[in-house]
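Tip: read the tokens left to right.
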């Protein structure tokens, strides 16, 4: 029995299309995914605004809320909560050059409209978190935007969201690059800086994705720890990543088990989840995966996360203390490897 409540986004189950090739699996209807998520033991679903309300651009504000209420009823039917809503700004023709930081005023207004609608949807779904993955906020050509002005525009956009709803919390999910070349807000440290510069830092925090930290050349467990030290880790996207390349969203723990262990360990040690935070997965099946195995990467991620939680619980802190005092880090390292190999 895990101490954690797990969440998952509908995009975790996808047809296998990538930048270089078409789909390799069938699309699975939204309700079927939700039913399966409940069966797999998830407690909550993560949403993009248009996961909850497809065709959002062509609906009125009232129509959007009505559509969101239908999704809430569907979640209730399967005993699931909504974790957050994230405006999906990167897919839209209005945000080719970015949303909050676009050079075009009309695009920036569109980004705010989608952000306000995301807040409306969150309210209808009964959740108080908005996640900003700033996919296209940065530069493809460095001289097109001032990093100073762009950073200020992000802070202004968040301030407007905080004004729009006095209870909403904004979580920035940092990523250093891809699809943008140079991101404006690439790490949890950047997120803490932006949070401090907003009008209500108590409502602006972070969501750390393992793969994004690795892409920044950082250890995810230290990014998690840094945010937790500030009381601002309000979400995680656990997954894995083989080195610094494109964002792979691999099954949690399959590339670097020790790094995965240390992510779970820091969450366990610091009481993550005690304020209702979810352990979110953001994992993709391999392109070779068949339709009938569409959920296997989720099952495997849960299995590894729970097994590592059990390892973290068994971690021998008195032995660790002894090793640290005698500066025998070699023995401590071998103990961790033995623990992970099932020899302890
Ligand atoms: Mn990712």
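Filled-in amino acids:
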């Amino acid at each position: 029995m895990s101490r954690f409540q797990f969440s998952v986004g509908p995009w975790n189950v996808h047809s296998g299309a990538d930048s270089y090739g078409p789909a390799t699996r069938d699309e699975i209807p939204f309700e079927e995914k939700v039913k399966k998520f409940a069966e797999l033991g998830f407690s909550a679903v993560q949403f993009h605004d248009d996961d909850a309300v497809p065709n959002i651009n062509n609906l009125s504000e009232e129509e959007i809320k009505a559509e969101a209420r239908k999704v809430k009823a569907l979640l209730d039917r399967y005993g699931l909560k909504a974790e957050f809503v994230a405006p999906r700004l990167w897919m839209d023709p209005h945000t080719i050059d970015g949303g909050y930081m676009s050079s075009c005023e009309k695009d920036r207004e569109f980004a705010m409209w989608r952000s306000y609608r995301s807040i409306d949807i969150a309210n209808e779904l009964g959740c108080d978190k908005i996640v900003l993955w700033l996919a296209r906020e940065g530069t493809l050509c460095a001289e097109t935007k001032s990093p100073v002005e762009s950073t200020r525009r992000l802070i202004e956009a968040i301030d407007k969201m905080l004004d729009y709803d006095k209870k909403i919390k904004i979580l920035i999910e940092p990523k250093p690059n891809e699809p943008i070349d140079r991101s404006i807000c690439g790490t949890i440290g950047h997120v803490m800086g932006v949070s401090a510069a907003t009008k209500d830092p108590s409502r602006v925090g972070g969501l750390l994705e393992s793969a994004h930290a690795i892409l920044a050349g950082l250890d995810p467990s230290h990014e998690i720890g840094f945010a937790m030290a500030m009381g601002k880790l309000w979400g995680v996207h656990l997954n894995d990543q083989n080195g610094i390349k494109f964002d792979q969203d691999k099954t949690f723990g399959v590339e670097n088990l020790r790094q995965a262990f240390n992510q779970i360990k820091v969450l366990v040690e610091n009481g993550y989840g005690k304020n209702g935070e979810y352990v979110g997965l953001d994992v993709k099946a391999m392109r070779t995966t068949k339709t009938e195995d569409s959920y296997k990467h989720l099952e495997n991620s849960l299995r590894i996360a729970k097994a590592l939680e059990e390892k973290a619980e068994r971690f021998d802190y008195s032995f660790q203390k002894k090793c640290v005092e005698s500066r025998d880090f070699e023995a401590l390292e071998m103990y961790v490897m033995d623990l992970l190999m099932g020899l302890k």
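The first helix runs from residue 30 to 40. The pocket of manganese (II) ion is lined by residues 209, 211-212, 247, 249, 282 (CB under 6 Å).
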